[in-house]
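Notebook, p. 212. Picked up where the previous page left off. The plan for this session was modest: take the two constructs that came back from the sequencing core last week, fold each one, and keep the raw output in the notebook itself so nobody has to go hunting through shared drives later. Recording the first one now, exactly as returned: residue sequence, then the structure token string.
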Amino acid sequence: MKKDQLLQYVGNTAQIGGSRHYLLSDGRGRDMRAIDVNTGSGLNYTILPDRGMDISLASFRGNNLVYISCNGETHPAFFEPSGFGWLNTFTGGLLTTCGLTYLGAPVKDGDEELGLHGRYSTIPARQVADLSEWVGDEYHIRLRGTIEEGRIFGHRIRLEREISSIVGQNTIRIRDIVTNFGYKASPYTILYHMNLGYPLLSEFSELIVDPVITVPATPFAAEGINDFRRFIKPQANCQEQVYFHSVKSDNKGKAHAALLNRKLGISLKIKFDAEQLPYLTEWKMMGMGEYVLGLEPCNVPAKNRVTLKEEKILPYIKAGETITNNIEVELTDL
């Protein structure tokens, strides 16, 4: 339907889709900003500006898509940076960004203590803007924010994120522009921790991915390497399995991974820039109450900074350099 025809049927564009801004008011999420996005065609998701413009809740045609940890949506003021303290405020959700100067397991790098998975997801965005508008006959929902990770005498990295969807379509587009605004080269590690959960994830689900090579992170993961595409019912006393996939690209330079649930009749596909994000970390956890599949496009395997240095694969972003990452999440009926 053309824009002028559609507007004859509605009193406000909120009837057909759009964004809704509010503050959470209870528990550990109290006073945290949230933005609900409704595409008007079945896809709904929640952006948390105070968690680096990451995405928590997400559903498609009434079916939940994501794993939410027992912490829930937690205010960044509760962040514990040392050791495994990151887990005490990890929400999960459709996207938790890890980085920007370190990720992976805790380690001491020289005089610097590095906790699990970095600080990014606990940094509130500034200059948050809703730029939604009509573009011809399409209504484009566009949310933008700026996140800066830096310290005096240290590294300074800025990430400008735009998350967008088009009303009537079931795709989320994430565009990150990463800039070193300091005056010296900085380590640059980024991982898009996308956490899929029940009912999209179940024993009826299948991972569709075609890696160049797959490396298990642990001996227990190696035991299950032939089954990394398949899933089972929740298990008691289960251990996590992690795999580092090196990805292939299509003729447009995109890598693909999808989770299909034929019983539910839903497919969630992730597309990302293979040149900028040449790895896909898979986090498979089939535990009771901790039942999750992490599909994590990244520019390095999910290893700590010391290990990356030892393996001579730690990326750096030069002073003044800018890198752009594009990720799409597409929902379809099977």
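Okay, moving on. Second construct, recorded in the same format:
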Amino acid sequence: MMRHAAKRLLMAVPTLLVLVTLTFFLMRLAPGGPFDRERSLPPEIEKALAAEYHLDESLPKQYLRYLGNLLQGDLGPSFQYEGFRVSELIATGLPVSLALGALAMGLALLIGGAMGILAALNHRRLPDYGVMSAALLGVSIPSYVVAPLLVLVFAIGLRWLPAGGWVTGRWSDLVLPVMALALPQISAIARLLRGSLLEVLQQPYLRTARAKGLSPAKVILRHALKPALMPLVSYLGPATAGILTGSVVVEQVFNLPGIGRYFVQGALNRDYTLVLGVVAVYGTMIVLFNFLVDLAYGALDPRIKTA
């Protein structure tokens, strides 16, 4: 198992390298530059700025310079946030993004898991139809549509929650963003767990357990739930990627100071180093989470450890 884990970690290195390389060159191909203004700067100032940030060098040299700094943990200075390095901006925004993503994933697992179990235990009855109808609706509506609707209902209409912004320690600012991120994942998890649990419940060993007189709760918790979670664990990798990418839009809608908002602002302002830094952090988080999913396989199914 440890050899398999080490191989997966080594395979992540070229993946991250390709991701950073593509982002580096695609950002350079985009029209405009980091120091474009409504009023053009004098040529001598533009030349000095380009020399300061090594933008006067050839593209291959800039790329090799960036990789060398990245290997040393240096994400470079921000072109737009004067006086700040990219690592400082990410360190400021990362706690907000992590809190948003963790709460959204926890809420999705809790509610989506309960809905999936409820639907499976009431197969082809009213609760099953109700859960699946709600799940289909939730999957069909993306986060960038859900977010404004939640603001209209709960912030503007009912005035229960703030429409946006961030005050340190005021967790009510995260309620609507977490709901916007979690709702599509709740629907997907409910559908996935329902189908997996229905399949497991048809297995012969579970019919034997029921024949021996075990209560339905013990059959589910002791024998059915663990194998039914295998497809759900597989889904957690893409789900995390979906929450991370969805948070980019949600943070912008709710004006949260997370790294998703920095990514949007950096892309609009051609802040090359800021965009590259956010992509590197997001990529690393997704790779690490997929690695943890692989380890969870071994805990849920001992046959994977043996293999």
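Notes on construct two before I forget. Residues 216-253 form the longest helix (38 residues).
Flagging for discussion at group meeting.
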